[in-house]
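Researcher: Please generate the 3D structure of the following complex. Treat every line as part of one assembly.
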Amino acid sequence: QKEVEQNSGPLSVPEGAIASLNCTYSDRGSQSFFWYRQYSGKSPELIMSIYSNGDKEDGRFTAQLNKASQYVSLLIRDSQPSDSATYLCAVKPGSQGNLIFGKGTKLSVKP
Amino acid sequence: EAGVAQSPRYKIIEKRQSVAFWCNPISGHATLYWYQQILGQGPKLLIQFQNNGVVDDSQLPKDRFSAERLKGVDSTLKIQPAKLEDSAVYLCASSSREGTTDTQYFGPGTRLTVL
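Model: Done. Output below.
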């Protein structure tokens, strides 16, 4: 059973702080990794994708991938109240498999 | 570019009744997915279509769930008969190519409540 694990939270950070969201996965052959943001009552929205070990930065967001440790994380710098949402980690095992989602981490950014 | 369309947005039914959901993907997207998202969980893939063919339906409860994409464009997901545990949001997503890293775009979802 291929699994994606996330701490369900809630993770609470003050406005302006760095939020760190973590995800581990069980399938060592996984090749593609995604972070989706889901506001309450809304559908998931892709915010970051990463395919190689290391860091990938996009604005205030940085995704980090360590395939040896089977670990992927998302850092949100200068967190804003509008970042308050559930963040879903999704992993694509191999090149043909479908996305497997974690349960999501609920982030709350306090003004 | 119009997004993924779904209807209805909300549905309340009694257990053992049947229900159908409709999805129209982004124009030109060959791959269409149906996901089930139970409250507090991540989305779980039910079925994936490539054009009008089924690529993966390994997690679809085939005794009660069925789906079709007859002309390779829009799709219908049906539940018959519904159970209490089917209460969830049903998300449709589409992407432009199968087996690549292309982004999946999600529709707004249909929230189903089974009483």
